[in-house]
């Protein structure tokens, strides 16, 4: 008896044949998108919906929401970002049942309510690289719903500056006999650049509106506080300078935006130009424009783009990775790998830090997911190439091992204020992530960055260098030492705190020669969005919500 090894391909071909009845070649009208979904998606299928950090296949999302539930139901959604309301409406309407995801920033409150209420069956909260990896192992999509700027009639796609997750999603789906459907803004005779070859795309839906892009990384300098400026000064003088960090990743937030805006002023005064912050794995942060224009930055590879930065990027191809058409070529998977293995430091914010240094963006009221932070903020044990910041961190963590056998360490810095939004304390005795794990019977609490990866914690109280801690007690007291007037901070041992400060484990602003009163908004290279536009020579076109002129 001969065994057939073509079942998946035969099934895919039948689905393509069913969908082709709605298409002219590969082109499907937007009004027929829901019927296309009903033709090619089966109950219980794994569906990858973009769902990126910024770029959203919103027309396809709405079409999926409108399907007849007698034909399409109980889907297992595997998507990077749960960003649009429609992404969660799928569960309220019974179209989707199970979710594996990485990031849910704008929907963090609603997804928490739905998870706690049992309306979503959670697979796991992943890191980006982890989810991408599972696309090729055990979460391979049956159907991928993606977004691109344009397509030709052969299905070749141009993704423009926001390529993001698209190549990874398509690779996993197309080469395992899945169906790829792309919504595009326009159909053209020839795409400016072939980002996704047409033989990997079965159907193209001409959308009736451009796909939605979230300006996720834009921070208005006018909203940066003096406390955030102080933490930025501490970071630059207390971490960037002594380690000579040139290759790094900045997380999202006002604290890192403040650092970017202090490089051309405070950093310049410290004589650090050319010595720190030259190579980034980073989205095109508008707050970095003054540093680029001042000659600080040599190169940036990006996970995705940022709304309004297209013309600026095109004019600064020496800095950014761009195609022959002049637009940014972003790729989240490649940039995550670059941040994990090629960068010497990650610095970013979180919502909670416990006494061991574990951090999470999961609280009882918000589940923001992780995105790439656990990859950026992980000490990659597969790394073998040396660099001075990496070696120095390794020496501090492990001074006894022979130099030739000692592992280096990636610098993983958590930066924030001791009290955050609505006066919520940054430092807690126990992460809310544990309560979520207990409520949902999870086998693993959703910790964003584990404490043994964290090397430094920076608050307005100072810097805790956890590399210099020699036991768990010292580590706990170092964390308490920068926790300010939170309950955790008030529980510090004053005698041990003083000993740790004498050893340089804890460094107050005055220990670094920083006067908190010097933290003034006049230090910022740009103090408004309009200032950033001026710095860019008029090339930066901020989104309407950031314009006040």
Provide the fold topology.
Elements: H1 7-20, E1 27-29, H2 33-40, E2 46-49, E3 55-56, H3 58-65, E4 75-81, H4 85-92, E5 96-103, H5 108-116, E6 121-125, H6 128-135, E7 143-151, E8 157-158, H7 166-174, E9 179-187, E10 203-206, E11 212-213, H8 226-243, E12 247-250, H9 254-269, E13 279-281, H10 289-293, E14 299-301, H11 310-315, H12 332-341, E15 345-348, E16 352-353, E17 359-360, H13 373-376, H14 388-397, E18 411-415, H15 432-439, E19 456-459, E20 462-465, H16 472-481, H17 487-490, H18 494-502, E21 506-507, H19 529-535
Parallel strand pairs: 1-10, 2-4, 2-7, 4-5, 5-6, 7-9, 9-10, 12-13, 12-15, 13-14, 15-18, 18-19
Antiparallel strand pairs: 3-11, 7-8, 16-17, 19-20, 20-21
Helix pairs in contact: 1-2, 2-3, 3-4, 8-9
Structure, briefly:
31% of the residues lie in helices and 16% in strands. The chain is an alpha/beta fold and 549 residues long.
Features:
alpha/beta, 549 residues, 8-stranded mixed beta sheet, 9-stranded mixed beta sheet
Could you explain how this protein is built, in words?
The protein is an alpha/beta fold. 31% of the residues lie in helices and 16% in strands. The chain is built from 19 helices and 21 strands. The strands form four sheets. Strands 1, 2, 4, 5, 6, 7, 8, 9 and 10 form a nine-stranded mixed sheet that branches. Strands 14-13-12-15-18-19-20-21 form an eight-stranded mixed sheet, with helices on both faces. The longest helix has 18 residues, at 226-243. The radius of gyration is 24 Å and the shape is globular. The model has no long low-confidence stretch (mean pLDDT 96).
């Amino acid at each position: 008896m001969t065994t057939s090894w073509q079942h998946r391909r035969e099934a895919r071909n039948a689905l393509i044949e069913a969908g082709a009845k709605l298409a002219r070649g590969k082109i499907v009208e937007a009004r027929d998108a829901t019927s296309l979904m009903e033709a090619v998606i089966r109950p219980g299928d794994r569906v990858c919906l973009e769902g990126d950090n910024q770029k959203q296949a919103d027309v396809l999302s709405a079409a999926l929401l409108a399907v007849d539930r007698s034909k399409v139901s109980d889907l297992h959604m595997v998507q990077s970002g749960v960003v649009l309301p429609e992404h969660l409406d799928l569960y309220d309407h019974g179209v989707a049942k199970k979710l594996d995801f990485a990031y849910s920033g704008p929907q963090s409150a609603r997804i928490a309510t739905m998870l706690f209420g049992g309306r979503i069956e959670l697979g796991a909260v992943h890191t980006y690289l982890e989810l991408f990896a599972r696309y090729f192992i055990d979460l391979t999509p049956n159907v991928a719903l993606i977004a691109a700027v344009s397509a030709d009639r052969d299905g070749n796609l141009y993704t423009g500056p926001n390529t993001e997750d698209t190549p990874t999603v398509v690779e996993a789906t197309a080469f395992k006999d899945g169906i790829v459907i792309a919504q595009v803004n326009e159909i053209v005779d020839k795409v400016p650049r072939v980002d996704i070859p047409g033989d990997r795309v079965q159907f193209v839906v001409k959308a009736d509106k451009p796909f939605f892009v979230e300006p996720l990384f834009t921070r208005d300098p006018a909203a940066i506080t003096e406390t955030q400026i102080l933490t930025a000064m501490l970071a630059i003088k207390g971490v960037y300078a002594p380690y000579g960090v040139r290759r790094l990743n900045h997380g999202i937030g006002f604290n890192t935006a403040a650092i970017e805006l202090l490089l051309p002023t405070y950093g310049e005064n410290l004589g650090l130009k050319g010595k720190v912050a030259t190579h980034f794995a980073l989205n095109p942060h508008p707050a970095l424009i003054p540093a680029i224009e001042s000659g600080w930055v040599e190169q940036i590879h990006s996970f995705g783009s940022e709304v309004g930065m297209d013309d600026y990027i095109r004019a600064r191809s020496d800095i950014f990775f761009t195609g022959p058409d002049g637009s940014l070529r972003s790729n989240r998977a490649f940039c995550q790998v670059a941040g994990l293995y090629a960068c010497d430091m990650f610095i970013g914010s979180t919502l909670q830090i416990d006494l061991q240094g574990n951090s999470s963006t999961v609280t009882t009221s918000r589940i923001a997911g992780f995105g790439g932070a656990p990859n950026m903020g992980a000490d990659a044990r597969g790394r073998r190439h040396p660099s001075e910041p990496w070696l120095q961190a390794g020496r501090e963590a492990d001074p006894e091992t022979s130099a030739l056998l000692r592992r280096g360490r990636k610098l993983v810095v958590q930066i924030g204020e001791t009290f955050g939004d609505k006066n919520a304390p940054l430092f807690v005795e126990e992460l809310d992530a544990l309560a979520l794990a207990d409520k949902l019977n999870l086998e693993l609490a959703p910790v964003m960055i584990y404490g043994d990866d964290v090397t430094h914690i920076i608050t307005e109280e100072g810097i805790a260098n956890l590399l210099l801690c020699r036991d768990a007690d010292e580590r706990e007291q170092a964390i308490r030492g920068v926790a300010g007037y939170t309950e955790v901070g008030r529980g510090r041992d004053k005698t041990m705190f003083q000993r740790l400060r004498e050893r340089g484990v804890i460094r107050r602003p005055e220990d670094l020669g920083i006067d908190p009163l010097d933290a003034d908004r006049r230090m910022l290279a740009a103090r408004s969005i309009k200032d950033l536009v001026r710095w860019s020579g008029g090339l930066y076109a901020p989104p309407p919500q950031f314009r006040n002129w």
